[in-house]
Each structure stands twice: as structure tokens, then as C-alpha cells.
Specification:
Shape: globular
Number of strands: 7
Order of helices and strands: EHEEEHEEHEHHH
Helix content: 25-40%
Number of helices: 6
Distance between the termini: 39 Å
Structural class: alpha/beta
Low-confidence stretches: 191-197, 201-209
Length: 209
């Protein structure tokens, strides 16, 4: 089965150690995990940390925009124009308040959903037909939106979100190796890959009533 051709995987977040362990930086976590697996080395260009590796006979860029979340498109847009990436070949990974904590959703396209990072990328690409992986962080009514997304992930949730980031990296690999539909079927749930279905036992030749 042919894989889905990606030119770039863009993880969204904010630069600097101050934001490293916040919910808003989960996109960075996933790209860092992919970089470890693919032995990629980052350098600064296009207002981002970017690494280009060989994968499935083509070039794949891993990007972490350094523009701060709300201006992510100022990094992604110029890189896309320079490398001549088509929007549908750019996978964007972001946190999502409207998904339960730990959930994962792969989507082939869509709007911003109120996410300022996605909104900026849509503006600078002039298109919203790019795939994305949304990582659920839930809501914290006591903290409010800004307080929650920029809040540190506590020790009680650290393992859950580290696992989510690794599962998202698995989903990216599955998407490239097996295709969009297969990856969506396998990973669109709580972030855990679904087990392979058991093989059906041969049905009896007797006529069922």
C-alpha cells in the first residue's frame, strides 16, 4: 500500500525553555521525537529550527517555528515557497483544547478551529488543505484558555503526554508508510494504536436459521 507523500512535518510551539513543558508545545515534542528516530540534526533557517532527512526515497523536512505560536505562518509560508511544497504535503501538529486530554486526531484538511498557530499558517499558505494531527489537551476552567495552554504539564500528566507525543510520532510514520486512511483508522482514538482485529473463524457450512 502506498504511503502518503509528505514534504514537511511542522510541530507548533513557542521557543525557549520557559515554554518547553507547556501544553502549547506538544507539537515540538513530536518533531523532537521524530528527529531522534530519524537521526536528524536541526539548524536555524526560515525563522525555525529545521532538519532535512532522506525518507522513502525523498526529502522530508522537520520544522519547529521560532516565531512564537501566533505567527507560525511567518516561518512555514516562506519555507514552503522556497522548497516549493504543496499545502497537501505539509503536516502540521498542534495541541487542541476541544479534544479530551490524550486524544489524537489525524485530519486531511480543515479550518483553524480557533487555533492561532493554524490560523497563521492558513493565512500565509493561502490554503487550508493541509493535513494536521491534533493532540488533545482538554480544558481547565480554573486556568482559562491562555493559562491552560501556557501552563506547565504537571507530574501527574507527564507520562500521559510523553506517551501521546510518541504515539503521534508513530502516527506520522504510519501515515508516510501506509497512507492517510490506514493511519487515521489506526490512530484516531485516544492516541493508542488499535490492535489488529482477530481473524474470523471459518463459518460452518450449515445454513443458519
Amino acid at each position: 500500500m502506498p504511503g502518503y507523500p509528505l514534504s514537511a512535518v511542522v510541530g507548533l510551539g513557542n521557543p525557549g525553555s520557559k515554554y518547553d513543558k507547556t501544553f502549547h508545545n506538544l507539537g515540538f515534542w513530536v518533531v523532537d521525537e521524530l528527529a531522534r528516530r530519524l537521526n536528524a540534526k536541526f539548524k536555524e533557517n526560515f525563522q525555525s529550527e529545521i532538519a532535512v532527512v532522506d525518507y522513502r526515497g525523498g526529502k522530508l523536512a522537520l520544522m519547529k517555528p521560532l516565531t512564537f505560536m501566533n505567527l507560525s505562518g511567518e516561518s512555514v509560508g516562506p519555507a514552503a515557497r522556497f522548497y516549493k511544497w504543496q499545502p497537501e504535503s505539509i503536516l502540521v501538529i498542534s495541541d487542541d483544547l476541544d479534544l479530551p486530554a490524550g486524544a489524537l486526531r489525524i485530519r486531511p484538511k480543515g479550518g483553524s478551529g480557533g487555533h492561532n498557530g493554524l490560523k497563521s499558517i492558513i493565512q500565509h499558505l493561502g490554503a487550508q488543505d493541509f493535513p494536521r494531527i491534533r493532540l488533545g489537551i482538554g480544558r481547565n476552567e480554573n486556568a482559562g484558555v491562555t493559562g491552560h495552554v501556557l501552563g506547565k504539564i504537571g507530574s501527574s500528566q507527564k507520562e500521559q503526554f510523553e506517551t501521546l507525543a510518541k504515539t503521534a510520532a508513530d502516527a506520522v510514520i504510519a501515515m508516510m508508510d501506509l497512507g492517510m486512511e490506514k493511519a487515521m483508522s489506526q490512530f484516531n482514538s485516544t492516541g493508542e494504536a488499535k490492535p489488529e482485529p482477530e481473524k474470523k473463524k471459518p463459518e460452518s457450512k450449515e445454513t443458519k436459521s
